[in-house]
Amino acid sequence: MKMRAISLTLVTASLVLSGCTSQPQAEPSHSQTAAADHDNSAILASDTAPPAQWDTELIPAPPLARYIPYMDGPRQTADEATELQAWHVRLDDAIAACMTRKGFRYVPSPAEEDGDNHGVGEFLRWLPVPNLDADRAVVARNGYGLMAAPKESITGKPANDDPNRDYLNSLSPAEQDAYSIALRGDYHVPTNKGSCTLDAIEAFPKPTRFSDRVDAFDAETSGVISSMSALVNVDLLSGPQVASLNRDWVNCMKSSGQTLPDWAGEEGPRVAMGIAMRTRPDGSLGPERPNTWVGEIPPEEISLMGTQPERDIALADYDCRASLNYLPRLTAIRVAMDEKFIHEHQAALDRLEQTEQDGVPA
């Protein structure tokens, strides 16, 4: 569904601005689990601290959260699932046969499921503020929690196994180029004409019953879902009340001895967690690395490993939030915005609810 990537894109953008690199997550997931791979006595074991979270869940849920169950769209029928699976098999067999005719070996990769969307609206439950435990003693022990990029990304290795990798590695560079052209087309031109993949897709067009229903749902509801996403991910932080609150937070952090970038007021406490990620075990700060591939960044500059310098930043953030009554004030602003949005968009929200309940005809 078109809307599912919105909140992840915005979160990733904020990390790039802060000089950190985020790893893709299934939306809307708000935590990354750490791997404690470094031999450093100051680093906590991964089972002594929870995973860090870039966002804080609102409990009780905010007003707009009541519409989360209606944002997933049509449910895939058993017939549609069977139809798509059969199509995947036919397509893979056709590609494999074509590659064999061209003198190559090809093993199909497991097909991605074209299943239902789940959790599309979960971003509505969260505030764009890193999670900190309510107990200061816990923050002193754990900081923001533990976080690290997957080993595959740090080393630059692909996260997913390709069943054809070993075969490809056995080929010469020229043969690998010929294999790629046979499978996907000539990227030198570029064109995919004459490739086994395009030939198979033309011979076996993908069934569209389910995707047509999803498209119909999107056409009916994407406007109001886009507006909800903008409210939570853009309008909340850019509004004058939050801007004032974040300025107070920035001044508090600077008073405690923390060094923040000039634009810190635009992001608030997320900036502190971004700086903590760049803080090395010796307390020095790694450079900002916007738009840098994660595999090129030293691991100690893209992860939270539970070191004392990182915990000191989290403690300063905790104390400033407490002194400003930050979370209750931000929550009140968000709830008021939700209520105003519902009042102004009630008709569209009613259509969203009714469209999901009725379903889009199969």
Structural class label: mainly alpha
State the distance separating the first and last CA atoms.
17 Å
Rounded to the nearest angstrom, the radius of gyration is 24 Å
Domain tally: 1
Oligomer: single chain
Major sheet details = 2 strands, antiparallel
N-to-C SSE series?
A: HEEEHEHHHHHHHHHHHH
Tally of individual helices:
14
Q: What ranges have pLDDT less than 50 throughout 5 or more consecutive residues?
A: 1-47, 149-159
The number of strands is 4
Strand content: under 5%
Instruction: Please give the share of residues in helix.
Output: 40-55%
Globally, the shape reads flat
Name the average pLDDT: 81
Strand order of the largest sheet: 1-2
Index terms:
flat; single chain; 2% strand; disordered N terminus; 362 residues; mainly alpha; two-stranded antiparallel ribbon
What does this protein structure show overall?
There is one protein chain. The protein is mainly alpha-helical. The protein has one domain (2-358). The chain contains 14 helices and four strands. The chain has helices at residues 6-17, 78-101, 136-142, 151-155, 165-169, 173-184, 196-203, 209-238, 240-255, 264-267, 270-278, 308-324, 326-344, 346-358; strands spanning 31-32, 52-53, 56-57, 126-127. The chain has a two-stranded antiparallel ribbon. Strands 3-4 form a two-stranded antiparallel sheet. Helix 3 runs antiparallel to helix 12, helix 9 (240-255) runs antiparallel to helix 13 and helix 11 (270-278) packs antiparallel against helix 12. The longest helix has 30 residues, at 209-238. It is flat. The two termini are 17 Å apart.
